[in-house]
Design brief:
Structural class: mainly alpha
Number of strands: 0
Helix content: over 70%
Largest sheet: none
Keywords: Ion channel, Ion transport, Membrane, Transmembrane, Transmembrane helix, Transport
Number of helices: 4
Protein name: Calcium-activated potassium channel alpha subunit
Radius of gyration: 34 Å
Length: about 110
């Protein structure tokens, strides 16, 4: 009985060695690329459906007061963002250049550390 068990063990060993000797890196590469592309397609389809289904604005008449209010609100928001960003950039530029007292203090502190 022991000899038949040894024969099956030795018979399966060359198959394992043969299987491990053949490298199929391209299978791994293709499966990785396919998984990435499938995930990307799922996300793009989801975003397209969300855009088509949820992006519709209500239709209003040309002289509807609600439409005028919405336009004014959008323009006011854009002007605020533009003004705020412009002010922030100006303030940062003055601070870095040392044109204000705070900027001079910051520059002196930086020079002392360096």
């Amino acid at each position: 009985m022991a000899s038949s068990e040894e024969e099956t063990t030795t018979a399966s060993l060359p198959d394992d060695v043969e299987c491990l000797s053949v490298r199929k890196w391209w299978c791994f590469l293709l499966s990785s690329i396919f998984t990435f592309l499938a995930g990307l397609c799922v996300v793009l389809v989801w975003r397209a459906c969300a855009f088509v289904c949820c992006h519709k604005e209500p239709e209003l008449a040309p002289n509807d007061p609600k439409q005028k209010e919405q336009k004014a609100a959008r323009q006011g928001k854009q002007e605020f963002e533009g003004t705020f960003m412009t002010e922030a950039k100006d303030w940062a530029g003055e601070l870095i250049s040392g044109q204000t007292t705070t900027g001079r203090i910051l520059i002196l502190q930086h020079d002392k550390r360096a």
